[in-house]
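S1.2 Input.
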Amino acid sequence: MSNPQTTHTALQKWVDEIVELCQPSSIHWVDGSEKENADLCQLLVDGGTYTRLNPEKRPNSFLCRSNPKDVARVEDRTFICSEKEEDAGPTNNWADPKEMREKLKGFYKGCMKGRTMYVIPFCMGPLDSPFAKIGIELSDSAYVVTNMRIMAKIGADVLKRLEDEAAGTVNFGRDGHGTFVPCLHSVGMPLAEGQEDVAWPCNDEKYIVHFPETQEIQSFGSGYGGNALLGKKCLALRIASTIARKNGWMAEHMLILGLENPEGEKKYVSAAFPSACGKTNLAMLVPPASYSGWKVTCVGDDIAWLWPHEDGTLHAINPETGFFGVAPGTSYETNPNAMDSMLENAIFTNVALTDDGDVWWEGMTKEAPAHLIDWKGNDWTPDCGELSSHPNSRFTAPAGQCPVIDENWTNPDGVSISAFLFGGRRASTMPLVFEAKDWNHGTFLGSVMGSEVTAAAAGATGHVRRDPMAMLPFIGYHAGDYLKHWIEMGKKVEKKPGIFHSNWFRKSEDGAWLWPGFGDNMRVLEWILAKMAGKVEGEETFVGSIPKWGELNVDGLDFSKEDWDKLMELKPEEWAAELATQEEFLNKIGDKLPAEVKEQRQALIDRING
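S1.3 Output.
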């Protein structure tokens, strides 16, 4: 390129190489400004990708419909291309990095013809944090730019920081000082001269590829979500998890919430749940009316980066600046704070359009509107037999708009974590809440946590899908080494968080929920903090410490001792089945399963049989 756009020579060289390979018709260096964002959104409206929503109902907000072939993460096309196959482990797809680079080079050759290549400098984590990660995403999608602007800090400030680091004029001690994570993305649909574009360009061939040793990400063919917004799952979890393991910290698929009691004492909890288990709802929980004076605040709803702090505790930051949440089921009843977060400056993908220019999705209101335009752009009525919104439809909203965003949510020093909470959707077996006996026992619980497959997902209903720490699709290396890293981290933290397991989804024999959930989960969080502070004793069982009747506040609930006993019941025959399916999963991890996890499992067997 004749006119260098940056003083960072390695960045300029890489951009020049990709321009030569992908052959875009123009290049735009993203500055992150309001004007640029407005121009790009208008460009997307003009091209039919965005529909501007009613500015009186939803100011500066847009609806987008993707190609029906491009609606979710594609885990079967997601690869960890480590130098050695054994480093990817049995839970990841592996391909030889040299062969994969050559294959992708064939796809990338000329793939941006007729399109603009956007150079997106972005930062995951507060810019001044030593744990911040600077990436550069090269993408031929304006949709990506406008969504990345919500999900990360992007633009001129990030580029200047990177240039200043390389020049030696600033040093915040950032790991990767002066360098960046190269992220290449293309929708894979070049335009010939005079060829008309489509509203959602994509390619039937899709690859989302990670090179852990060189910390590179390459994505081809998809414009959707985590396949295209490469700062999110690709960098903040898959690549970050490999960096974290090497440098003694943790990159986890966890929400972070703050809990402040009426006396002004504040503690932070981090929680990991698989999908469809109420993660975002818990992150922004509204306490029941009887909890007057309590405050719940949100640091983040999806990702936590944690490290051993000099104060002896684990500290955490949320590396994101936005929410990329599943829309269906989100409502003013289930999550009013999420609803308020998306009142303006939001992007909605694959939801329905109302006749007055707003959005709607299943579960948003009790009554569906009489008429909608559905996510495929067709007329929709409640009796048509189709869903108005795709089950994985999304809202992208700035975290700073959340009414309960925590005052420390962008603090580079993070927040001190008092407890971890694991959990899943289980109709039986698992009690409402219990505490692990110690860190290693908690790591074991996390390693075998799982959720029952519902009728909407592939697989037998009721079958438990194991998902260690809710990280199964996001561990950037061998799952056995990941569990070993958890064990090792426990040795580095003087004041360890307590580890707890919850289950909001237990049912009675006639299929009724035994626990009200949502805001009433506050009662469980209160017990967790009381247990950590030594204010309640709990009752020791073979799984861990459960609340005694009377320790967990059920005031205001129609809840008897008999109800409580059903909710907390531990049936040895159910646990025999639980142990069998645990073993099936742990055997997949193979020789790298840590001895400590095996020991914890054997200790559980001995306690059940004892």
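S1.4 Remarks. Residues 455-461 have pLDDT under 50 and may be disordered.
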